[in-house]
Amino acid sequence: MKQNIPFTMLLRAIRYCSSFQSYLDERSKLRMDLLVNGYPVKFIDQQFNCLLQKFNIDEPLSLYNYDKLRQQVINTPYNDKVPIDYRKTLFVHFMISI
Q1: Does pLDDT of 29 surpass 90?
Q2: Domain that includes residue 46, residue range
Q3: Considering the chain, what percentage of its residues have pLDDT values greater than 90?
Q4: Angle between helices 4-16 and 41-54 (to 10 degrees)
Q5: Most buried of the four, 28, 30, 75, 85, by CB within 10 Å?
């Protein structure tokens, strides 16, 4: 779940920011929010890079290619979560007291 938060935040930023400058501003705010909440810089960068890899983007986003790559992200079908059959799946939760 911890990995999904920065991934989804950046995905949302790419989808909603129609200009490259607004994307940069939003990405900076997201990075700062994640840092304030205790996420390591290396982890944030890994998740941001993971997002680009998931959508087969192998070049950095720039002013010149942002519109094309943003459209690629928007047009790529996003797989829904696989439904869980709760009759066959067992979830185990435990706590350790010290």
Answers
A1: yes
A2: 4-75
A3: 28
A4: 60
A5: 30
Alpha helices (runs of H) in the chain, residue ranges in sequence order: 4-16, 20-36, 41-54, 66-75
Q: Per the domain annotation, does 97 fall within a domain?
A: no
* Residue among 83, 72, 95, 85 nearest 11 (CA): 72
Q: Does residue 55 belong to any structural domain of this protein? A: yes
**Which DSSP symbol is given to 90?**
-
How many Cα atoms are found within 13 Å in the side-chain-facing hemisphere of 79? 5
- pLDDT for 38 beyond 70: yes
User: What is the model's pTM?
Assistant: 0.69
Tally the domains of the chain: 1
Position 80 in a domain: no
Domain presence at residue 93: no
Q: pLDDT tens, 45-74?
A: 888 888 888 888 888 888 899 899 899 888
